[in-house]
């Protein structure tokens, strides 16, 4: 009889725990949907507000450019290495960018083992797609010797912590790292036999910068109920079944769009989200450029990794 009572108590506890696991997310979703009607979110923001952005550049001394960006609890480190290589056969007059994304196993329990690989590949593909437009970076400026040599920018991205809205955080960190990237000056000299020879400047300060004004920032818009929000928290992402990520330049031009989530979007909602994404993206670009200018004006201050 005692064993039966113990078994019943254990079953009751398991049932209560299961109910709580289902009820808490459901109740939270109801709260989120309810507050969005009044243009209010659980953390006090409006539907189109971003969380605070903290930025530091030049943290990786052996990289050509680097940046670390924190968007609330999302933490991303980006380093850019510049190397000479042969251009692609189909684009002999252009250089190129190559992206590599790695998710730290400590970023979130979901990334343990091989859990972060799929997300890393998705972000990497969307970055490549977003930068394919000729309006983002003038890749012809990266050409050194037509059809033979060009600059290749290897952009390494490490996701240190996942606090929601990773796409946007990664794009902001990438743009910041590219903004600080220094490309060495190089001269092409013709030697005997008309064979060209490349001469790198011996002056480490004789470099050039990329024009990153039109490099896109990503804006993630998640649909929750009848409304959509930007910069979702992890909890808000769980309440949404569909959304889009929009790559937007500083001139409001959309260079790429990606749908996320398993749910569907009504055509009217999609058009509205694209328009909002374009407008928000232009604002985010301006905010980021202002932060980069502040970092530049600060000069060679000691880098302390967000512990200012």
Automatic annotation (TrEMBL):
Could you tell me the keywords of this UniProt record? Cytoplasm, Exosome
GO MF annotation terms: mRNA 3'-UTR AU-rich region binding
Q: Taking every annotated instance into account, which residue ranges of this chain make up the domain Exoribonuclease phosphorolytic?
A: 50-184, 214-279
UniProt xrefs under SUPFAM superfamilies: Ribonuclease PH domain 2-like, Ribosomal protein S5 domain 2-like
Primary location group: cytoplasm
**GO-annotated cellular components:** cytoplasmic exosome (RNase complex); nuclear exosome (RNase complex); nucleolus
Where in or outside the cell it occurs: the entry states: Cytoplasm; Nucleus, Nucleolus
A Pfam match is RNase_PH
Per the record, the GO terms for biological process are: exonucleolytic trimming to generate mature 3'-end of 5.8S rRNA from tricistronic rRNA transcript (SSU-rRNA, 5.8S rRNA, LSU-rRNA); nuclear mRNA surveillance; nuclear polyadenylation-dependent rRNA catabolic process; rRNA catabolic process; TRAMP-dependent tRNA surveillance pathway; U1 snRNA 3'-end processing; U4 snRNA 3'-end processing; U5 snRNA 3'-end processing
Q: Which PANTHER family match?
A: EXOSOME COMPLEX COMPONENT RRP42, EXOSOME COMPLEX EXONUCLEASE RIBOSOMAL RNA PROCESSING PROTEIN
Q: Which family does it belong to?
A: Belongs to the RNase PH family.
Q: What is this protein called?
A: Ribosomal RNA-processing protein 42
């Amino acid at each position: 009889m005692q064993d039966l009572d113990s078994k019943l108590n254990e079953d009751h506890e398991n049932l209560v725990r299961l109910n709580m696991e289902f009820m808490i997310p459901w109740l939270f979703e109801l709260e989120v949907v309810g507050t969005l009607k009044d243009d209010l979110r659980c953390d006090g923001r409006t539907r189109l507000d971003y969380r605070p952005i903290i930025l530091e550049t030049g943290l990786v001394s052996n990289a050509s450019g680097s940046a670390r960006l924190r968007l609330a609890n999302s933490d991303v480190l980006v380093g850019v290495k510049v190397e000479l290589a042969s251009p692609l056969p189909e684009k002999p007059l252009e250089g190129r960018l190559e992206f590599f994304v790695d998710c730290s196993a400590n970023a979130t329990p979901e990334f343990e083992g091989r859990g972060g690989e799929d997300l890393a590949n998705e972000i990497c593909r969307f970055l490549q797609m977003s930068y394919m437009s000729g309006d983002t970076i003038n890749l012809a400026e990266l050409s050194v010797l037509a059809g033979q040599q060009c600059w290749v920018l290897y952009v390494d991205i490490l996701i240190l912590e996942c606090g929601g809205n990773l796409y946007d955080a990664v794009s902001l960190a990438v743009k910041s790292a590219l903004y600080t990237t220094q490309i060495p000056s190089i001269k092409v000299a013709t030697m005997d036999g008309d064979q060209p020879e490349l001469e790198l400047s011996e002056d480490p300060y004789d470099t050039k910068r990329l024009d990153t004004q039109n490099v896109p920032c990503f804006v993630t818009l998640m649909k929750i109920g009848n409304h959509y929000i930007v910069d979702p928290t992890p909890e808000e992402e769980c309440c949404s079944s569909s959304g889009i990520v929009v790559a937007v330049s500083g001139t409001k031009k959309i260079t790429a769009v990606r749908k996320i989530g398993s749910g569907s979007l009504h055509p009217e909602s999609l058009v509205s989200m694209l328009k909002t994404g374009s407008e928000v993206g232009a604002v985010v670009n301006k905010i980021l450029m202002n932060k980069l200018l502040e970092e530049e004006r600060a000069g060679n201050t000691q880098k302390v990794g967000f512990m200012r």
